[in-house]
Amino acid sequence: MCGDSQKTFYLETFGCQMNVHDSEKVVGTLLKEGYAQVETVEEAGLVLYNTCSIRDKAEQKVFNRLSDYKKYKAQGKTFGVLGCVAQQEGEKIFERAPYVSLVCGSASYRNLPEMLVQIQAGKQRVTGLDDRETDECFETEFTARTNPHRGYITIIEGCDKFCAYCVVPFTRGKERSRTSDSVLEEARQMADLGYTEIQLLGQNVNSYKDSAGDRLRKKSFAELLAAVGEIPGIKRVRFTTSHPRDFGRDIVEAIEAVPTLCDHVHLPVQSGSNRVLDAMQRLYTREQYLERIAWMKAAKREISITTDVIVGFPGETETEFGETLSLLDEVGYDAVFSFKYSPRPNTPSLKLEDAIPDEEKVRRLEVLNAKQRAIQTTSYKKYIGTVHEVMVEGKNEARGQWMGRTSQNKTLNFTAPPDAVPKTGSYVPVLTTTSFPNSLLGEMVV
Predict the structure, then answer these.
(1) Is it the case that residue 341 has pLDDT exceeding 70?
(2) What is the phi/psi pair of residue 279, to 5°?
(3) Helices (H) and strands (E) in the chain — how many of each?
(4) d(C-alpha 44, C-alpha 17), whole Å
(5) Which pTM value belongs to this model?
(6) What is the DSSP letter of 73?
(7) How far apart are CA 288 and CA 292, in angstroms?
(8) Is 174 in a helix, a strand, or coil?
């Protein structure tokens, strides 16, 4: 890369909401450095991939993309791999894709400007891979948010839980929290810019520990959640992802007390079997998990509960899989995000015996999804005839329907009369008229 004419970049993001928001901050950083963002690889002088390594398919997708674009190296383009795959594979990426010039893990993003200067100066290979023990978070005032109404705020980075199947502690480093003052300042700035919905992010968001020096000003996660919800102009506050071990009753009490806190909690369980939970190193039992579910079900507001489940963990018996199915019945989740176990580098589960054949994992996934679909088909019917406030996200022109989401994070698509067209980002009342297994349909109330 040479000269300002080539200070253009293309960034593609893979993976979770944390990655999406990391990319927003990377984009803002690059724009501040004088780069211009473009829509295609062909237009870009710098091509970046922000990667995910939670599952093997996501990782392979990145290398396939790099292989597809290696022809552009001859045109003088510079390639960089960011994020979890970058940290996981490190300098091996240079061997696998020799045309890559930058490999940078998420804990090193704050050093991106210096790395780019090295590349501009002609250095062929630049890495940012040594910061997993850092106590610093990637904070920048130059975040380029992609949605003008709903925005993310990362409050904690890294993870200290070391679940047996998870690569995140190895790729994102140890837990480190921002000060509550800095989080609240960012939230106030967003409110001043017209944002009405904020989502607090973290690998284990409720593991948050205020890093403020003054202990009298430190806030717990529940206190921070409530404080964000009380900022003038903010209508909705969400958070993800929670770990059951750190999920306290005070979080439920905050949701009850502060109307702007959305009545939805995503609480990954992964398995309904105590033996499997122990093998996964999840740090709680089925009974402890259900205690937290009971807190939510006893709340004054109806709280929507969603979860993650892994099937086919090494050694999982048919009986233990059955315990997970029974948990679905017992809890009655509003949605389940289910995955086949995928062995990841550096994780303790690689040493476990009794691997489950892939065809059996596929079968179990199908059984679990069918059960959950039946649960949702029944439970979503109770919303027919009820009115919900919906944040308008856009319009499906083909169907003639507006797309929206309720406080419970349910998709509620709806029709509106021609003389009352809602604006994207606005909040409107919608009467639910039809239910489906994964969404609701209704009519805007005028």
Answers:
(1) yes
(2) -65, -35
(3) 13, 19
(4) 25
(5) 0.88
(6) G
(7) 7
(8) coil
How many CB atoms are closer than 10 A to CB 386?
Answer: 11
**CA gap 325, 368 in Å, rounded:** 7
Q: Which residues on adjacent β-strands are paired with residue 152?
A: 199
Q: How far apart are CA 391 and CA 427, in angstroms?
A: 5
Express each pLDDT in 170-195 by its tens digit: 888 899 999 999 999 999 999 999 99
The answer to whether the peptide bond before residue 241 is cis (omega within 30 degrees of 0) is yes
Q: Kindly give the residue spans of alpha helices, DSSP state H, lying in 34-127.
A: 56-69, 84-89, 92-96, 112-120
Q: Residue 35 in contact with residue 48, Cβ under 8 Å?
A: no
| Phi, psi (degrees; rounded to nearest 5) at 312 | 80, 25
* Band (131; pLDDT cuts 50, 70, 90): low
> Which of 316 and 129 is assigned the larger pLDDT?
316
CB 194 within 8 A of CB 175: no
Please, where are the H alpha helices in 193-298? 221-229, 249-257, 274-279, 286-297
Q: DSSP assignment, residue 395? A: E
What phi and psi values does residue 334 have, to the nearest 5 degrees? Answer: -80, -20
Beta bridge partners of 102: 80, 126
* pLDDT at 39 exceeding the cut of 60: yes
Structure tokens belonging to residue 354: 């009794």
Confidence of residue 1 (pLDDT cuts 50, 70, 90): very low
Measure the CA–CA gap between 153 and 239, rounded to whole angstroms.
9
pLDDT at 302 over 60: yes
**pLDDT range class, residue 115, cuts 50, 70, 90:** very high
